[in-house]
Design goal:
By secondary structure, the protein is mostly beta strands. The protein has a single domain, classed as Methylamine Dehydrogenase, Chain H (7 Propeller), CATH 2.130.10. Helices cover 10% and strands 47% of the residues. It has five helices and 34 strands. The strands form eight sheets. Strands 2-6-5-4-3-13 form a six-stranded antiparallel beta sheet, with no helix packed on it. Strands 14, 15, 16, 17 and 18 form a five-stranded antiparallel beta sheet that branches. The longest helix has 21 residues, at 2-22. The N and C termini lie far apart (81 Å). 40% of the residues are buried. This is LVIVD repeat-containing protein. It comes from Maribacter hydrothermalis.
Length: 423
């Protein structure tokens, strides 16, 4: 009996030492997702209602006499702009999980939790849902990278079935965890999950196709819709919307954020660089070259032989110093950096003839003459406003700020404020 007691004591001591070898431990906040069945959740995620106040202003899109303003993750506001001096909100299209749209021939294409959703807007007062294609852009695993995370030390979501589940919230509890696990996680924040940041022009839009800003992920060119997710170009043949064809994706890289075109050349903005693709065969974009830079949020617009790229550092965007990069693309296979202009916190940008518009965040809207590119000269600045993205139209400039839509009119070589709408 005495030998058995000694054996049990030895085992207990061994177990205690073993546990200590794994330690030390401390209390940490652990977040786990609250899930809902994706089918029932998505069925409740679409509606068309009367105008409501905006929560978080995102991208803007212009089509005919209407402006569409994204309410990040919630849907988009429809604004009647027949009188640019007095725009009027007329509806809100509830579309949860939405970040972007594109329109052609009165068909509005949008994303919702990675699905491609199509609306008929031929009667703007009676907008109807035409189709919803599940996981056409990305599955719910990529959607998880978009959502707002709670404050926590650990995130546990390995058991999610991304084909069936949607994250609708988080439960946060205090649990004991090894200090070494916490330290390892802090040394690899980007290993745990990807963070989200938030129709480019290239001349006047076709009469049947709308126009977005430089932060767009959707782009319609001819009979094709191109949508960039975080690593791929998704391609859709929309020549027959009743029989829309999903074509093969083209893998680009990681952290792809924006898409812009000049003719049959695509320019993709990502946190690691600018990527150039040919769409001479519109169904199979072909890689030409890339321009690499430090990690930063990176929209791009192009005019002639130059690409204009705003790099925003800090926060989730990365550690690169903020600025405007002017890149010579006369040789598409060998893009060459020409000039860097310092900026405070640039977002979107746009071009109208020889005028370059830059949304410099809390530093406001900045206007430059680029006729001597790659050199640019300041013309004007609009301060004491937050500038997020712009769309240069034929006779006016649209700009979205912090829950405010601004509209400017061109006056000779300058612009002046025409109207503001508190969203």
């Amino acid at each position: 009996m005495r030998n058995i007691v000694l054996l049990l004591f030895a085992v207990s001591i061994s177990s205690f030492i073993s546990c200590e070898d794994d330690g030390p431990y401390d209390d940490y906040l652990v977040a786990r997702p609250i899930l809902q069945d994706a089918i029932s959740f998505k069925a409740e995620a679409i509606d068309v209602v009367d105008p409501i106040p905006i929560v978080s202003s995102g991208k803007i899109y212009a089509y005919k006499n209407y402006i569409f303003v994204n309410d990040v993750n919630l849907g988009f506001h429809v604004i009647d702009n027949q009188n640019p001096s007095a725009p009027e909100s007329i509806a809100f299209i509830k579309l949860e999980g939405n970040y972007d749209i594109s329109i052609k021939d009165d068909k509005l294409y949008a994303d919702s939790y990675g699905d491609l959703v199509i609306f008929d807007i031929s009667d703007i007062n009676n907008i109807t849902l035409s189709n919803r294609i599940e996981n056409a852009i990305y599955n719910n695993e990529v959607w998880l990278a978009n959502i707002e995370y709670p404050q926590a030390d650990f995130y546990e979501y390995d058991d999610i079935d991304y084909d069936k589940d949607i994250v609708i919230g988080w439960e946060v509890k205090t649990e004991r965890r090894r200090v070494s696990d916490f330290e390892e996680r802090n040394n690899c924040m980007s290993c745990d999950f990807a963070f989200n940041t938030t129709e480019s022009g290239g001349g006047s839009p076709q009469p049947s196709t709308g126009q977005g800003g430089s932060l767009a992920r959707f782009k319609i060119i001819g009979d094709y819709l191109y949508v960039v997710d975080y690593s791929d170009i998704n391609i859709f043949d929309i020549s027959n919307v009743e029989d829309l064809k999903i074509l093969d994706d083209v893998q680009v890289g990681w952290d792809i954020e924006t898409i812009y075109n000049q003719g049959d050349i695509l320019f993709l903005g990502g946190r690691q660089g600018m990527y150039i693709y040919s769409i001479k065969n519109p169904e199979k974009p072909e890689f030409i070259s890339e321009f690499r830079h430090g990690t930063a949020c990176d929209p791009v617009v192009v005019d002639g032989d130059y690409a204009y790229v705003t790099l925003k550092g800090g926060g989730f965007c990365g550690n690169t110093e903020s600025g405007l990069y002017v890149i010579d693309i006369s040789n598409l296979k060998n893009p060459e950096l020409k000039v860097i202009y310092p900026m405070e916190g640039p977002n979107g940008l746009g071009i109208k003839d020889d005028t370059l518009f830059i949304c410099d965040g809390s530093a406001g809207l900045k206007v430059y003459d680029k006729s001597d590119a790659p050199n640019i000269t300041p013309i004007n600045s609009f301060q004491d406003i937050v500038a997020y993205d712009v769309i240069p139209l034929s006779s006016s400039l649209l700009m979205i700020g912090d829950r405010v839509l601004y509209q400017y009119e061109y006056v000779n070589s300058d612009i002046r404020l025409l109207s503001t709408v508190e969203l």
